[in-house]
Amino acid sequence: MAIVRMARRLRQEAGTEEELSPTLTSALATVEREGPLTPSSLARCERIQRPTATRVVARLEEAELVSRTADPSDGRVAHVAITPAGRALLKRIRSRKNEYLARRLRELAPAEQATLAEAAGLLERLLAEPATTSRKGSARER
Question: 12-47 b/e with 16+ CB inside 10 Å = b?
């Protein structure tokens, strides 16, 4: 629950509610990190359905945060890339989050900071491993 609450607080501190939903922000960051990529690739990265990825790309494109170009070898395939405006927005969001975290971390003792640094490394390792359970399983299976 602490991770969920921290994620919520960081979204609040980033001030993105008026700019982008968490889904759109996540997708934009994925396009920045992995792009250019197809909507199908975005769907896989974000673990969302292809039609949802198509709607997300359309919203980001409408906001001029990404651009979509046709594949030269197959006009049916589109590639999505981040625009300078999208990159600038992510920079603002990250700066706000970093400022908040830096302010809060300065309140901790050095040993507490070291503990958090170690925990962050462990969390990164856990998140890097592929998921082994289906999201469609029952609550008992999860």
Answer: ebbebeeebeeebbebbbbbbeebbbbbebbbebbe
Give me the CATH code for the 21-89 domain, please.
Answer: 1.10.10.10
How many H-runs (helices) and E-runs (strands) does the chain carry? 6, 2
d(CA 135, CA 131): 9
For 52-82, how does the pLDDT look when each residue is reduced to its tens digit (9 = 90+)? 999 999 999 999 999 999 988 888 889 999 9
Query: Tell me: the pLDDT tens digits for 14-47?
Result: 776 567 888 999 999 999 999 899 999 999 999 9
The whole model's pTM is what? Answer: 0.77
The DSSP code sequence of 35-81 is: -SB-HHHHHHHHT--HHHHHHHHHHHHHTTSEEEEE-SS-TT-EEEE
